[in-house]
Design a protein that fits this description.
Layout (H helix, E strand, L loop, with lengths): L7 H4 L53 E3 L6 E3 L7 E6 L6 H19 L6 E6 L7 H10 L9 E4 L4 H11 L4 E4 L33 E4 L8 E5 L1 E5 L5 E6 L1 H4 L2 H14 L1
Parallel strand pairs: 3-4, 4-5
Antiparallel strand pairs: 1-2, 3-9, 6-8, 7-8, 9-10
Helix pairs in contact: 2-6
């Protein structure tokens, strides 16, 4: 796969390293000789990026061409030639997804306020194309204070549920599963995420992926919701991951760390 193209010596996890998914480290810039595909310093991780399904530090994101829900036409996930903040959502989510969007909105707000909004991009890929129509995504953007008129925000909407599964889960490694809520309003067969717990992980998951999936109820009461991974990627103009926030970090620390990381990347 394309996202596995990287220099192994640049990605080997150091024994005993503490996972700080949003940590910039040092002055935030890296050596172009040692890590030719990245511009920021190496992200501290407690695992080798090769051992997880999603594109982690130093790996190139998958190439997928998807419809631009609001702008028309199609856009490739590698078609952004500026620093890109990318996440995966469904608009009826009431728990994790608004926090993922808020992290991107925080970075967009800083960029616009400080005058570098034209130097960065933001994108969200929906994995619920049936309900996430262009009209619904526009409403979601208004609800979440996305500055659509800034011209640097894109909603990518797979044509079908099967295409969403192929791109979001199979290519990007962002697990999601549609489920029917039980009588208590929680995801049947999983723990209640309103209390902060997470759903069970299939036996095929690696240890570093355990505890990163959350079930979120649909707001419109139409009978289904999703269990899904929370993930935010900060990608450089060549499509390589400079920073990632996975699981709880994506819904907690990313909002504070992403704006500064994005600013450093666009200046690197």
């Amino acid at each position: 796969m394309d996202r596995r193209q990287y220099i192994r010596t640049a990605l080997g996890a150091t024994a005993g390293t503490v996972a700080l998914a949003g940590c910039l480290g040092g002055d935030g810039t890296g050596s172009s000789d040692e890590y030719p595909n990245t511009k920021l310093s190496k992200q501290e991780m407690e695992f080798d990026p090769e051992d997880v399904r999603f594109p982690a530090w130093g790996q190139r994101i998958p190439s997928a061409t998807l419809p631009d829900a609001l702008g028309g036409g199609e856009t490739s996930t590698r078609g952004f030639d500026k620093p890109l903040a990318l996440t995966f959502i469904f608009s009826n989510c009431m728990t994790a997804c608004p926090l993922l969007t808020q992290a991107l909105v925080s970075a967009q707000g800083k960029a616009l306020q400080e005058g570098w909004g034209d130097a960065v991009e933001f994108a969200e890929i929906t994995f619920d194309p049936v309900r996430d129509t262009p009209e619904r995504l526009r409403t979601y953007a208004e609800e979440r204070n996305v500055a659509l008129d800034a011209g640097n925000w894109t909603f990518l909407r797979p044509e079908t549920e099967a295409r969403a599964k192929a791109v979001v889960q199979e290519q990007f490694g962002v697990y999601f599963e549609k489920t029917d809520p039980d009588s208590s309003g929680t995801d049947a067969g999983t723990a209640a995420t309103e209390s902060g717990t997470t759903s069970p992980v299939p036996s095929t998951a690696t240890p570093t992926e355990t505890g990163t999936r959350t079930g979120t109820p649909a707001a419109d009461g139409d009978g289904y919701m999703f269990t899904h991974r929370s993930l935010i990627l900060l990608v450089n103009g060549e499509g390589y991951v400079e920073r990632f926030w996975n699981g709880d970090e994506a819904t907690s620390t990313a909002a504070a760390e992403l704006p500064d990381a994005m600013n450093r990347l666009r200046k690197a």
